[in-house]
Amino acid sequence: MRIACLQFNPQLGNVAHNLRRAETIISRAETRGINLLVLPEMAFSGYNFNSVNEINSHLEPTAAGPSTVWARSIARRLGCYVAVGYPECCAHPPSSPLGLMSRYNSAVLVSPMGNVLVNYRKHFLFSTDESWAEEGPDGFFSGDLPDGLGRLAVGICMDLNPRRFEAPIEKYEFAHHILDSKADIAVMPMAWLTSQPAESLVDQAQVPDADTLAYWTQRLQPVLDQGGQGQSGETIFVACNRTGTERSACYAGTSAILGVSKGNVKVYGCLGRGTEDLLVCDVPGLGKN
């Protein structure tokens, strides 16, 4: 199986620029044989909105806005599954009180034929999300992919953390979801922050953020303890992060494709903290390489 992560630096609110940037990176990369392409959280809108008023003009209808249109187009062109994060608005039924609108931090998964398979709504919200979004009510996602690609689990960024940073750190909610769903692949679009100074994105652009990578691995501890429950005994963890800065926020990059089995983590590939690139890795045991 060939998995790709598109790591780049979206500009806040500049959807047209961000779409062009993603296309440019893809056009320069070797994309033959990719089975699954993953993009960051809120990839084309940017992430660091401070209020409902700020984000309102960038909200997209459920699986029907610019992010999904792009995902469907690129999925057909490359013949692969595509997962991308976007800010969703969803109208309640006309019978609901006051005709309220719901807003979610979401991710859509599209098939190689361009069909929308999954619309996942972020279950654990970060403080930035809480300024405009509701918590996804349905929990983390899991489901089967066709073509022998196995069982998929989906979360978004903060879903990897303890809920609201209030739950016990050893609860490992998303890692247990991976185990309980017997997932072969866990996909997480991210807008993950770094504790390193913004200068490091330039001075050490090609160097992964070791603290971030170590933390992601630590949050998968139950999978490390018990081993992957999918077909191969190894769970593939795909973290597609963004890079760059927005206002005071500095993002960690370090998009990674990891193989997690009992007592072992294999790094199939990892990008630097400031790199804009397409990471492509062959992962044995699922689908066709």
The average pLDDT score comes to 93
Question: Which secondary-structure class do the elements indicate?
Answer: alpha/beta
The CATH class designation is Alpha Beta
Query: Helical element count?
Result: 8
Strand % is 25-35%
Topology:
Elements: E1 2-7, H1 15-27, E2 36-38, H2 52-55, E3 60-61, H3 66-78, E4 81-91, E5 101-110, E6 116-121, H4 127-130, E7 141-145, E8 150-154, H5 173-180, E9 185-189, H6 200-203, H7 210-218, H8 221-226, E10 235-240, E11 245-246, E12 249-250, E13 256-261, E14 264-270, E15 277-282
Parallel strand pairs: 1-2, 2-4, 3-4, 8-9, 9-10
Antiparallel strand pairs: 1-15, 4-5, 5-6, 7-8, 10-13, 11-12, 13-14
Structural commentary:
- InterPro entries: C-N_Hydrolase, C-N_Hydrolase_sf, Nta1.
- It comes from Tuber aestivum (summer truffle).
- Residues 1-285 form the CN hydrolase domain.
- GO terms for molecular function: protein-N-terminal asparagine amidohydrolase activity; protein-N-terminal glutamine amidohydrolase activity.
- This is CN hydrolase domain-containing protein.
- The protein is of the alpha/beta class and 289 residues long.
- It has one domain (2-282): Carbon-nitrogen hydrolase (Nitrilase/N-carbamoyl-D-aminoacid amidohydrolase, 4-Layer Sandwich).
- It is 21% helix and 28% strand.
- The strands form 3 sheets. Strands 1, 2, 3, 4, 5, 6 and 15 form a 7-stranded mixed beta sheet that branches. A 6-stranded mixed beta sheet has the order 7-8-9-10-13-14. It has a two-stranded antiparallel sheet with strand order 11-12.
- The longest helix has 13 residues, at 15-27.
- It is globular and about 45 Å long.
- The termini are close together.
- The mean pLDDT is 93.
